[in-house]
Amino acid sequence: METLRALREHIGDCHRCPLGDTRNSVVFGTGREDAHVMFVGEAPGRNEDLRGEPFVGAAGRLLDELLASVDMSRSDVYIANIVKCRPPGNRDPRSVEIDTCTPFLREQVRLVSPRVIVTLGNFATRFVLGTTAAITGLRGIVHRRGHRVVLPIFHPAAALYDRTKRDVLFADIALLPGLIAGGTVHGPGAALYAGDDATGGGLFL
Ligand code: SF4
């Protein structure tokens, strides 16, 4: 595909996996087409499925607050999910659904070509980094994948009613400006740089 628009048209009214039979909307992704930062979540929830946009509702508002804390807004970034359709009852996406849908995410990453990928929560982090480790041990650690960096953070939904996680989220997102600038990482992430891993896993296979 040459453009995100062409990719969206290619996906169309998708029924390539079983999620196509139960969702209302294909939630493709939104934001700046040449963003330096891409946020990757798990899957659309009920509000996203109804609106056709990623990260609406309370978790979306917290994401907006996080962006504002580093002088950014949604118009500065690109936001997408691992799978584009809501799993029934918000269950975890299944392997066949992930395998069928993630070529679209890979294409979005190729087209937007972000410098930084911020993974939101366990599921997205595990997929993007190709790991089974938990977000609690990975968050705030900067991972290199070729010429991109990956910053795992808690999912905003997990921090809505947890003040401690919320504080951690704001501390982790504070690493973002330094990563976008491509300079030295200051703060907690500096000591935790996971080093270069050009082979990667997950998203970077
Ligand atoms: S989840 Fe992805 S592959 Fe499955 S129907 Fe939706 S867009 Fe198609």
A few lines on this structure:
With 205 residues, the protein is of the alpha/beta class.
What is the ordering of alpha helices and beta strands?
A: HEEHHEHEHHEEHHH
Number of helices: 9
Main sheet attributes: strand count, strand direction, barrel closure: 6 strands, mixed
Strand content: 5-15%
The domain tally reads: 1
Percent helix, as a range, is 25-40%
Named once each, the bound ligands are: iron/sulfur cluster
- Please name the fourth-level CATH homologous superfamily: Uracil-DNA glycosylase-like domain
Level-1 CATH class name = Alpha Beta
Q: How does CATH name the architecture? A: 3-Layer(aba) Sandwich
What is the alpha-carbon Rg in Å? 16 Å
Which residues sit in consecutive blocks of at least 5 with pLDDT less than 50? 186-193
Amino-to-carboxy terminus distance? 19 Å
Oligomerization: single chain
CATH topology: Uracil-DNA Glycosylase, subunit E
Q: Please list the strands of the largest sheet in the order they lie side by side.
A: 1-3-2-4-6-5
Shape: globular
- Average pLDDT for all residues: 91
